[in-house]
Amino acid sequence: MKNKRVAVLAALALLVALRSFHVELPHHHSAAPPPAQLAPPARLAPPVGRRREATPILASSKHKLPFAIYSISCAEAQDCATTTIVGQLEGACDARERTLERASLNEWAQWRRDFEKKHRRSGCKVCVASEWKTKVRRAVAQALNEEYASRSPSGGYLAKDRASLDLYCAYSSSGGEETVVKSSTRDLATFLRRRSTIVFECPVPPSLRRAALNDGLHVRIAPHKNLEGAHPSLPLLVQRAVKWPDNGPKIGACAWVKGGAYHDRDGNILGLPAARVAEWLAHLRVLGVGHVLITDNSDGVFAKALSGQSARETSPLKVAYDGFSSITVVPWPSLEDDRDQCDPGRVEASIIKESNATCTTQSLFGRPAQYAAQNTCHRRLVAAGAQWVTHNDVDEFLVPPPSLNAEQYLMELLTPFGERRLPPRALALPCVFFAPCRMDNHGMPVGQSDKMLLSEGTCAGKAQLHRQKLIAHASVTHLWVHYAFAAKQGVGDVVYLLPEKQLMLAHLRLGYSFDSALASRAVDNFGEITQTEEKRFVELYDERLSAGGETCVAAKKKTEEFWKALTPAQRKARAAESILERTKRNRRETGLGISDCDLLGEDMFGWCWCVDDAPARLALRTRAELVARWDVSSLRREVDAAWPAVGA
Question: Angle, to 10 degrees, between the axis of helix 344-354 and the axis of helix 93-102?
Answer without folding.
Answer: 30
